[in-house]
Amino acid sequence: ATLRLVSAIYTIVRSFRSRLAMSLLLRSSRALQRVAALNPAASYASHAPAHKEPSPIGNREVVGFGFNGAANYSDRTDFPLPAIRFKPVTPDIQALREKEKGDWKKLSIAEKKQLYRASFCQTFAEMEAPTGEWKSITGCTFFFMSLALWVYMAMKLFVYPKELPPTFAVDRQQAQMQRMIDISINPVEGIASNWDYEKNDWKK
């Protein structure tokens, strides 16, 4: 009797668990259907195959660590060892690479130059050659200086008054100075600190 009771309880528990799992599965399926109905693009994106991004360096060969460990190319006189070659691998370059494994005397000057240009963009002479950039910098500097001069002349002719304001007169400036002394403007380190109020004259 005890075994039958335990077996019955086990059967009930299994049935309950299977029903609960089926109910959860149906609910999740309905929720996914609602999401797909509201946003078909999201449903497609979730089932679409992952798109493999192309390599930023293409099929250019990685030949070393480079300046900072990144797979990029740059011409530097202080570190002339880029991480990748300048040009991608082509059948012509691949044929020359196989040929250079043999005797270099069999390579022509043009083939040697082609091999060099496949790995590097510039020679040391080209990197150190003057670029003439100072000409454009000098020209732009003089252009903006002349522009500022023309703006100043235009302001002088059309904006500023022909005569200076009356406050620029000598007697007005002296009166302003006397007023600042009378009210003791900045008596510690300013004008009033240099005025002798007992002698009514500048300190000597």
UniProtKB/TrEMBL annotation:
Record's bilayer topology term: Single-pass membrane protein
Location (main, coarse): mitochondrion
Pfam family, one: COX4
GO molecular function: oxidoreductase activity
UniProt entry tagged with the keyword Ligase: no
Pathway: Energy metabolism; oxidative phosphorylation
Record-linked SUPFAM superfamilies: Mitochondrial cytochrome c oxidase subunit IV
Keyword annotations from UniProtKB, A to Z: Membrane, Mitochondrion, Mitochondrion inner membrane, Oxidoreductase, Transit peptide, Transmembrane, Transmembrane helix
GO annotations of cellular component type: mitochondrial inner membrane; respiratory chain complex IV
Places the protein is found: Mitochondrion inner membrane
GO BP terms in the entry: mitochondrial electron transport, cytochrome c to oxygen
Family (UniProt): Belongs to the cytochrome c oxidase IV family.
Role description: Component of the cytochrome c oxidase, the last enzyme in the mitochondrial electron transport chain which drives oxidative phosphorylation.
Assembly and interaction partners: Component of the cytochrome c oxidase (complex IV, CIV), a multisubunit enzyme composed of 14 subunits.
Protein name: Cytochrome c oxidase subunit 4
Species name: Graphocephala atropunctata
